TrEMBL record:
Domain Nuclease associated modular: 64-100
InterPro entries in alphabetical order: NUMOD3
Any coiled-coil regions, as ranges: none
Annotated GO MF terms: DNA binding
Organism: marine sediment metagenome
Protein name, as recorded: Nuclease associated modular domain-containing protein
SUPFAM superfamilies attached to this UniProt entry: DNA-binding domain of intron-encoded endonucleases
Transmembrane segments: none
């Protein structure tokens, strides 16, 4: 696998016609119940090759929290000097065309009225 996130790898690099994403439930719960509901599905499907969760647990200790300015500065300093994984990797003609089309389309939809 060439990508750190398995789900993104599947979505971008593998033929999407071979993969389906199934909606397990459309019941709307209160925010407080989401973790319990997610854990129910993880208990049932985690470990299956079609389950894309990294963790078998639904708990997210940092949910709703914000980084302090001090932490943001520290994370910024830690990231400085890192060489991007794609530095020096040439883009394919297809990638260049897709980027060009996306940029042109985005520029057409810019609202300049203020």
């Amino acid at each position: 696998m060439d990508h750190k996130n398995r789900l993104i790898f599947i979505m971008h690099y593998v033929n999407m016609a071979k993969n389906t994403f199934e909606l397990l439930s459309s019941i709307i719960f209160r925010k407080e119940h989401l973790e319990l509901f997610e854990q129910k599905w993880l208990d049932k499907y985690y470990g299956d090759s079609k389950c894309y969760n990294k963790s078998p647990n639904a708990d997210v200790p940092f949910r709703g929290a914000k980084h302090t300015e001090k932490t943001k500065k520290l994370l910024s300093e830690l990231a400085m000097g890192r060489i991007p994984w794609n530095k020096g990797v040439p883009r394919t003609k297809q990638e260049k065309l897709a980027i060009s089309a996306g940029t042109k389309n985005a520029m057409r939809n810019v609202d300049m009225s203020m």
